[in-house]
Fold this protein.
Amino acid sequence: MSQTVLVTGSSGKIGRAVVAELQRRGHEVRGFDRVPSGGLSSTQIGDLTDRPALDRALAGVGCLVHLAATPDDEDFLTQLLPNNVVGLYHVLEAARAAGVCRIVLASSGQVNWWQQIGGDIPVFEHQPVSPRGWYAATKMFLEAAGRGFSEQYGISVIAARLGWCPRPGQEEEIRATEWAHDVYLSPNDAGRFFACCVEAPESVRFLIVNGTSKPVRETRLDVTVARTVLGYEPAEQWPQGM
């Protein structure tokens, strides 16, 4: 069933792919970002700490896909705290006030970093976390906040632990990092994955789920839950989509 979906971070690499796939499936999509988002007739320009802008963007929205964040380890006080912690607070509270029924939160495979690096693979969603650093710690906070919103307010929340969809400038790094090919997430697969989250059964109340493309050598982040609960099937493999 089609619905109105707000995508924060809609101008980013994953955001553009998610917007395109949701539109292809017949959803009405709005964007929220600090810069204009191409391909959308409805885009709110704003910062994650701008509550009035978030309120305007979320009016009448049924589902929120929250991608916007500082995307890796940066200075905690000036980058991670305002964008990934304070910004998350404003996003969740604005979504609750707007009556959003489902929230999809972009977490990260970095919350299980040391299991992956230490070879304790595949990593399943139910295992204890081992965050790489402060960025991953903010994603742990995101997951915990999402669980609280689901329990307290009855909102369906899906926290997506994503593999590596390299941003511009990271192409050589991922190419030279052999293990990373097994957690690669292509833009096309990212679009399909988040669309499956949006369209997941109403019975899904709170779910943590891994999302990657097909591994090249061995599975590092298990995607069985994504397959069985969301109906997501990876279609691509490193380096497709680069």
Notes: The chain is about 40% helix and 15% strand. The domain at 4-230 is CATH 3.40.50.720 (Rossmann fold).
